[in-house]
Design a protein that fits this description.
This protein is an alpha/beta fold and 209 residues long. The protein has 7 helices and 6 strands, in the order αββββααβαααβα. The chain has a 6-stranded mixed β-sheet. It is globular, with a radius of gyration of 16 Å. The two termini are 23 Å apart. 37% of the residues are buried. The structure holds 2-acetamido-2-deoxy-beta-D-glucopyranose (3 copies). Keywords: Carboxypeptidase, Glycoprotein, Hydrolase, Protease, Signal. It is an enzyme of class 3 (hydrolase). Belongs to the peptidase S28 family. Its EC number is 3.4.16.2.
């Protein structure tokens, strides 16, 4: 929840916006949101350096309806090959997944590994809700079935998902002092840049690090 985040001041967050072409658009009459792509990049096998985890994610971060408290398994991938460890305050690079299976995004983000190797960083890739295996309501068919279920498919919810996972992971790894550098491509970078800046910085006193 956002309220929990505001009690955690030690999330140093920097953003690098990348612009890689995708099909996501927003018009001035619409809030920017993902369209459901008919052909999405699918699962891509990865080397054993990439370890898969699930986080039990809250369906709805902003309301208090009964269904808001439903959860789903959100996938994230960690590569600790280059990490200097929490004792050295080595950075955590977080790739904010966008409109694809997260394994596909790992496979096209080689630059991210170069960053980590240069800075002894931990690599974390978080899958966007409603993609890959991070599917609310048990299956893609159910999740995409109707507007009730699709109502939780928004960029605001996705942003809160990422914040939850990052905070949880930092605690888990005793890495609360490690700076977090958030990277995203296109939708994942540019749109989130705006929201993180406007929503989270004000609420949580995050700072660029
Ligand atoms: C994560 O959750 C998905 C969907 O529930 C499941 O298919 C997958 O096996 C889980 N992965 C891990 C590493 O637990
Ligand atoms: C990190 O520091 C703590 C406290 O000084 C110590 O107990 C722990 O062994 C260290 N961990 C590593 C991996 O060096
Ligand atoms: C976080 O901690 C849980 C145990 O509470 C563990 O099962 C999980 O694998 C940890 N995640 C990471 C990325 O270390």
């Amino acid at each position: 929840m956002i309220s929990e985040m505001s009690r955690t001041p030690l999330l140093n967050l920097a953003l690098i916006s990348m612009f890689i072409g995708t099909s996501v658009t927003a018009t001035h009459t619409n809030r920017p949101r993902l369209s459901i792509l008919t052909e999405k990049p699918d699962y891509v096998p990865l080397t054993p350096d990439f370890v898969f985890y699930n986080y039990t994610q809250t369906l709805d971060h902003f309301n208090y309806k009964p269904e808001s408290y439903m959860t789903f398994q959100q996938r994230y991938i960690v590569n600790s090959k280059y990490w200097g460890g929490s004792n050295t305050s080595s950075p955590i690079f977080v790739y904010m997944g966008a409109e694809a299976d997260v394994t596909f995004q790992v496979s096209v983000s080689g630059f991210f590994e170069i960053l980590a190797s240069q800075f002894h960083g931990l690599l974390v890739y978080i899958e966007h809700r409603y993609y890959g295996t991070s599917m609310p309501f048990g299956s893609k068919e159910e999740a995409y079935k109707d507007s009730n279920n699709l109502g939780f498919f928004s960029s605001e919810q996705a942003l809160a998902d990422y914040a939850q996972i990052i905070l949880n992971l930092k605690q888990n790894l005793s890495a609360t002092h490690c700076p977090v550098i958030v990277v995203g491509g296109s939708y994942g970078g540019s749109k989130f840049y705006l929201w993180v800046y406007t929503c989270l910085f004000k609420l949580t006193k995050l700072k660029f690090g």
